[in-house]
Amino acid sequence: MDPTSQPISQKVTKISGTVTPPRSPLPYPFPFHIIPTYTTTQSPPLLLNIMQHPLKHHLTLTLLALILLSHFPPASPVTPCRTVCGTTAINYPFSIDDGCGAPQYRSMLNCTGTELFFMTTSGRYKVQSIDYNKQTMVVYDPAMSTCSILQPHHDFVMTDVESVVIPPSSDTVFALLNYSIDSPVLNRYKNLCFNFSGHSCDELYGGCNAFRVFRSFTNSSPPCCFTGYDTVKYMSMNILDCSHYTSFINVDGLKGIGPADWVYGMKLSYAVPDTGCGRCTRSGGACGYDTETGVMMCLCSTSMNATRECAAGSNGDIGSGQKLALRTKFHAFALVVGAFIYFVIFI
User: Per the database record, which ranges form the Wall-associated receptor kinase galacturonan-binding domain (predicted)?
Assistant: First the structure.
């Protein structure tokens, strides 16, 4: 009888209580056309051997799982930079974590609970919105007077760096209210004051409940001044000799609109530094900097940084870090396959 046609049950012999496959009568190497085949009711010797040993069965399944997992792409790196505060997205160049974003904007934002604040030497200003397309940020001073509330004057002071990299935009107007006849903007620097969109100071004193009180002290409206940021940048409220101030934005669209409906606050305008941040973000990293030197870095995880991009980049330009990751993955896969073969054959 042809040995290849014998049932598997007839091809094994029992020796000392163990099942040992007989030596193959076929020479090695042998032609592939005489490799034994099995019907659907039969099991190959290797599979039968695995199934008869539970420990080997579990090890085999574990190794198979490792092989499958090695083919899945690595998860996106977890960067140390938070990207949201409440409902406000935090993107480059801003950050709420030291070492993230651009160094020029370091420590400008603070996230307290779900509220985002713009930090200056004069206080904390609540961030109402950030438009990353128009590169503007709208902030609001809680201590500032508005059409509905009157509060003591509060200087708006920015550092030299802040006033350069993120100054108030040109469509932000400051209104200096109830200043004395000795104020510099009423005498020597009266050219710093202007009207906008057809509005005058009389509208503020007559149309706002909070400012109407100033009329009770005189028979006419006290002086006021609509001016730009440069005025309050170089002269404090004490120098300007005014008791209150307010500010509003989008003044070009306020023609024909009363002060009760103006948008009170300050719009800040910023620029994004060209540091090659796009390459870093496309590779899954976050743009940041060395907190000691200020040199730009690509933050890939809480424990790994790179100069330009992360190893698991998604862009077409494969860097040295990505090549190293591919080599490491290949070596790990070969190690798993070798271990699998060892366990199946020798254990």
Answer: 81-141
> Average pLDDT for residues 63-91, to the nearest whole number?
69
**pLDDT per residue as tens digits for the range 154-194:** 788 999 999 999 999 999 999 998 888 889 998 889 899 99
Burial-class residue 280 by CB neighbours within 10 Å (0-12, 13-18, 19+).
Answer: buried
Q: pLDDT tens digits, residue range 213-223? A: 887 776 677 88
| pTM over cut 0.85 | no
Phi, psi dihedrals of residue 199, rounded to the nearest 5°:
-95, 155
Dist CA 45 CA 107 (whole Å): 68
Residues 103, 294 contacting (CB under 8 angstroms): yes
Q: Are strands 115-120 and 123-131 parallel, antiparallel or unpaired?
A: antiparallel
DSSP letter at 220 equals: S
User: How far is CA 24 from each of CA 11, 15, 47, 178, rounded to the nearest angstrom?
Assistant: 10, 17, 18, 108
Q: What is the DSSP string of 127-173?
A: EEEEETTTTEEEEE-TTS--SS-----------HHHHHHSPBPTTEE
